[in-house]
Amino acid sequence: MKSLLALFSFALLCGFQDPAPAPDYEAEVKALRAEYQKAEQEYYKEYRAATPEERKELKAPAADFLAKFQELAAKAKGTEGGAAALVEVFGLAQRVPKKSEDARQALSTLVTAHVESPLMERVATSLRYAGHALGDEPCRTALVTIRDKAKLPKAKAAAIFTLAVQDMPKNEAAARTAFIQLKKEYGETPYGAKADNFLFELDHLQIGKTAPDFEATDEKGAKWKLSDYRGKVTVIDFWGYW
């Protein structure tokens, strides 16, 4: 009898205990990202101090951390932390030789399983220059998916903006339509705020357009205008410290 009472009391006590807290995968991603950034800093510090022969022996940390983020993404599958880990996989895989397919797979999972995540804004902006590593078609397909299926205005605007910028050299009409849409529908976002600058570029700075006139001062202090050289072959070199 006493044994039964003890067993019942133990079961009752267990029932009132707090359940184990859910894993904080987003915190794990943040911590692993900080670890990677520190490893990168140490690597480049060693690289700058090394001789050309010693540099051949140094190993960049990207490949090791790619595997760690892939493991974390699998563990956190279906969660916002899992999405954050996939974003890191997507970025790192583009830096590791022969890992482009890993990047494409991460991107595909992000835009199918996590298209409503706030992280889609970051993904869309990162796709602006990803074509050289992944191919233009996967990047464009992902951008169209984010544009059409994302719920958050900033994510949709980021996708429209990136598509418009990519269209500028080859499809001016599509780019113009997209920038006008950004102004009208997403003017409160950073991407809508940039639309006028890019429309100006379409009108005045593309190949075949007449450059807007401006005035400057040469190395001798004499003022001149671009229009002074109208009709002549003119090379203008813009540069800065940025």
Entry summary:
The chain has about 240 residues and is mostly helical. About 65% of the residues lie in helices and about 0% in strands. It has a two-stranded antiparallel sheet with strand order 1-2.
Low-confidence stretches: none
Output the structural class: mainly alpha
Please bin the fraction of helical residues.
55-70%
Cross-sheet strand order for the largest sheet: 1-2
SSE sequence, one letter per element: HHHHHHHHHHHHHEE
The overall strand count is: 2
Estimate what percentage of residues fall within beta strands.
Answer: under 5%
Number of helices: 13
What do these coordinates show?
Helix 5 runs antiparallel to helix 6. A hairpin with a 5-residue loop joins strand 1 and strand 2. The N and C termini lie far apart (about 80 Å). Helices cover about 65% and strands about 0% of the residues. The chain is mainly α and about 240 residues long. It has a two-stranded antiparallel sheet with strand order 1-2.
Write the layout of secondary structure elements.
Blueprint: H1 2-16, H2 25-49, H3 52-55, H4 62-75, H5 80-93, H6 100-113, H7 119-126, H8 131-134, H9 136-149, H10 153-167, H11 172-185, H12 190-193, H13 195-204, E1 215-217, E2 223-225
Antiparallel strand pairs: 1-2
Helix pairs in contact: 2-4, 2-5, 4-5, 5-6, 5-7, 6-9, 7-10, 9-10, 10-11, 11-13
Task: For this entry, give a set of tags.
242 residues; mainly alpha; two-stranded antiparallel sheet; globular; 2% strand
